[in-house]
Task: inverse folding
């Protein structure tokens, strides 16, 4: 049996399933990206230890999904489909994949671990399972989360922000009449905190604590006040610091990448060019 976090995979005619799993563990969330390395039929099961949502990129000859309390569902073209199963409901089934690059991305979350964020906008009733749905909002957010899970040196702040967004969408966030705004003092505290820690990891929980708000409240008031989310704002600050270092220092690119929290020179180059339209070397030469 091959364990992918909270879900177990087993090839039907042998003991081991060839699959590669990458995982990111956050505060209250776990993200897994599983890539199948074989077209052999397999079985799967999960005991329902957490809320579970999966984005599938699977093409099957045949397959069947069983969820406690729901009639079995069969499916073959599961590309860009989503499955949500609430905590406490077991999952099982089998699949006979086609010979292609099949993969799926799973987000596990426990509402008890993120209750501070949940109580403000969430329904108290537990949502019903969703099997092989194509909800546009969830699909867009889970697709972004898949890209994060596949990346080298994933941005944990962005991963946490997307995970919380999925949880909000799953539980059915209700709109509030007034989103509110950050005060000038909160903006100053947040900016000072971010700039003092650009070289390291910055989490949504840390920013919420600095602002004296819950994570969900910070996420929406940050965007309402500054026109972009915390992750984008932090990236802008990282790029601004990198531009300053490129203009006024002789530091090598790997050192600048480390000082600005990009994790690797390659990631720094990609992000810098995406934002500025120039490579770091070209920017240094032309300024």
Result:
């Amino acid at each position: 049996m091959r364990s992918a976090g909270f879900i177990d995979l087993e090839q039907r005619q042998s003991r081991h399933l060839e699959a590669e799993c990458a995982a990111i563990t956050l505060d209250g969330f776990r993200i897994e990206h599983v890539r199948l390395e074989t077209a052999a039929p397999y079985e799967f099961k999960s005991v329902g230890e957490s809320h579970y949502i999966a984005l599938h990129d699977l093409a099957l000859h045949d397959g069947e999904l069983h969820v406690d309390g729901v009639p079995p569902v069969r499916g073959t073209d599961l590309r860009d489909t989503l499955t949500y199963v609430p905590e406490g409901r077991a999952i099982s089934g089998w699949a006979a994949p086609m010979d292609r690059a099949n993969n799926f991305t799973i987000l596990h979350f426990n509402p008890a671990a993120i209750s501070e964020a949940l109580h403000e906008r969430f329904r108290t009733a537990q949502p019903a399972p969703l099997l092989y749905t194509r909800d546009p909002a969830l699909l867009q957010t889970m697709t972004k989360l898949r890209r994060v899970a596949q990346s080298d040196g994933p941005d944990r702040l962005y991963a946490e922000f997307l995970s919380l967004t999925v949880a909000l969408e799953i539980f059915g966030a209700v709109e509030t009449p007034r989103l509110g705004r950050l005060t000038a003092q909160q903006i100053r505290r947040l900016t000072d905190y971010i700039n003092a820690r650009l070289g390291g990891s910055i989490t949504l929980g840390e920013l919420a604590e600095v602002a004296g708000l819950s994570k969900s409240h910070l996420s929406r008031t940050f965007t309402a006040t500054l026109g972009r989310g915390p992750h984008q704002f932090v990236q802008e600050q990282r790029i601004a610091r990198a531009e300053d270092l490129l203009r006024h220092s002789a530091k090598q690119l790997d050192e600048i990448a480390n000082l600005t929290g990009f994790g690797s020179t390659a990631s720094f180059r990609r992000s810098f060019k995406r934002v500025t339209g120039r490579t770091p070397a070209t920017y240094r030469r032309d300024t």
